[in-house]
Design brief:
Elements (H helix, E strand, L loop, with lengths): L2 E3 L4 E7 L4 E6 L10 H6 L5 E6 L18 H15 L4 E6 L1 H12 L4 E7 L11 H20 L16 H12 L2 H13 L3 H4 L6 E6 L7 H8 L7 E5 L6 H4 L1 H24 L1
């Protein structure tokens, strides 16, 4: 399994394919890079080279000791360091849920490295508002709810392996979610209260696409549409009916098909027009 020694952590990632199109996938709040496995498998290996990172504290990537070591900014910084270290060219960056805010941070800081940006059921680039006391209360409540859910044997982020017919993939992903250290989740939540990228993402130069499911119980369709409106005019939008928070798990083939259309047509046509 591939690893990269970054300046602050040793990062593990899943790599697949050897094609000319490079896609880097970033997972969300509780998940791991494993959540992209089915999508990676759905992309033709001779056309796509894909990297699915494990953020700090996910999977086999190092988990630093303090809450402030986790969050949108350090996650985005790690991804940039990995992209630079591996010499990845013309990247299409894809972020899911909290990963949507992570890739937005990356795109604002390093637009020159990206050919396209994809937001899958993304968090709002303007985060959330609250007083210090309210923030602490919300974080404590969320962590207590997570502990109760785990005590009942449930998963998280819409992933649940309790069904008798759950696949080995689902069980492994649920185990990754259960193993996420609480300091990572607290740091991640805290960063969502401070992020304010709405003005910056409005002027991103690369093609942008938002995808999501209208049955998402974690990020409602109304919130996703409000997020979509913050991105540049012409940002693509694709909504699947009856699909929940993780189209990359629920309908990986359909997700991969829309992703391919965005990369092979929208991004290519925008680049061709820019050279005329």
């Amino acid at each position: 399994m591939p690893y990269a020694q970054l300046s602050r952590v040793r990062m593990h990632y899943y790599e697949r394919g050897h094609g000319p199109e490079t896609v880097v996938f970033v997972h969300g709040f509780q998940a791991s890079g494993r959540i992209w496995q089915l999508a990676q498998e759905a992309l033709p290996e001779d056309r796509y080279h894909t990297i699915a990172v494990n953020n700090r504290g996910a999977g086999e990537t190092d988990a630093p000791p303090e809450e402030h070591d986790f969050g949108i900014e350090p996650f985005a910084s790690d991804v940039y360091e990995l992209v630079t270290q591996l010499g990845l060219p013309d990247v299409t960056l894809v972020g899911h849920s909290l990963g949507g805010a992570t890739v937005a941070r990356y795109a604002v800081d390093h637009p020159e490295t990206l050919k396209g940006l994809v937001l899958l059921d993304p968090a709002d680039p303007n985060g959330r508002h609250g007083s210090p006391e309210e923030i602490e209360r919300i974080i404590d409540q969320r962590m207590a709810a997570r502990r109760e859910q785990q005590a009942r044997g449930g998963g998280g982020d819409g992933i649940d392996a309790r069904a008798p017919d759950a696949s080995a993939f689902t069980r492994a992903l649920a185990a990754d979610i259960a193993a996420a250290p609480e300091r990572r989740l607290r740091g991640s939540m805290r960063s969502m209260f401070s992020i304010r990228l709405g003005e910056a993402v409005r002027s991103l130069p690369m093609p942008v696409m938002l995808m999501g499911g209208d049955d998402d119980k974690l990020i409602p369709i109304s919130a996703m549409l409000a997020t979509w409106a913050k991105y540049p005019p012409g940002t693509g939008l694709h909504i699947w009916h009856g699909v929940g928070h993780s189209p990359n798990v629920e309908i990986p083939e359909e997700f991969a098909a829309v992703l391919r259309r965005f990369i092979e047509h929208t991004v290519s046509e925008r680049r061709a027009a820019a050279t005329v």
